[in-house]
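User: I'll paste a sequence; please echo it back and then give the predicted structure.

Assistant: Echoing your sequence first, then the prediction.
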Amino acid sequence: MRALRVTPGAALRCAAATCAALTLVSCNSTIDNGGGGTVIRASPVGVWVGIDSVTSLGITAYINSAGQATFFRSDGVQFDGSVQISGSTLAATVTGYTDFSSNFNDGSNTGIGTLNGTVTTGDSLRATLTFTTDGGTMITGTWQLNFEAQSNTASSSAAVSGNYTDNVTGTVLSINNSGVMTSQNANNGCVLNGSISTSDSTHDLYEVAFSYGNCTGTYAVLNGVQFTGLATLNASASPLQLSWAVSGASATAKYGLITTYNGS
């Protein structure tokens, strides 16, 4: 379990004309283009994996049918936001977080930016990141992601039920057939209670919600924080893997967690 601490950033707003043209989508659909014709609207839903050609770091993305999205680099920096689609054009305002206790080069640990690009349903996602840290440093990215076949695996509470082991801490996570989750970390005392569910049984994407209690040491700041986010179950991996990216906030700070569990 890795905790990513951030402070509130200033909100960015898209131009009114752009916002009006963009809509959330869950699958390929057609829309009136205003001239009597129709435009095929692409779907960004799925698990996407690729590379950032600017940093040479790996990039993974989870995007659900409501447009909720998280993009995270292999160095632990994640970017969260709601994806909007017009035709094949993709746009999102994102909040970024560094790994807990680490900072960007300017000493800040959060920021806000925009993501713009294109998506082809079930094939490819290309996007450019323009991001500014709270310390004023500009960070860019050029992402080339490919659709993962596991995205089309059916999801359900029964499918994800079982026992999983955190591949960093060794903590055992238990999920019952109703999606109720529990765990206790022997290293820091953190007790997790929450749930995992799916709003779209045709894709391998899950919504996660949980909170921590009894955390000690560095992790004590997570006590009572409500985390929400997205998860995916890779049943073709050996052992199978449950991975999630979540975020939450206390009265004074925001946090993110990226965790991978191995099935037992």
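The helical segments are 16-21, 157-160. The first strand starts at residue 2 and ends at 6.
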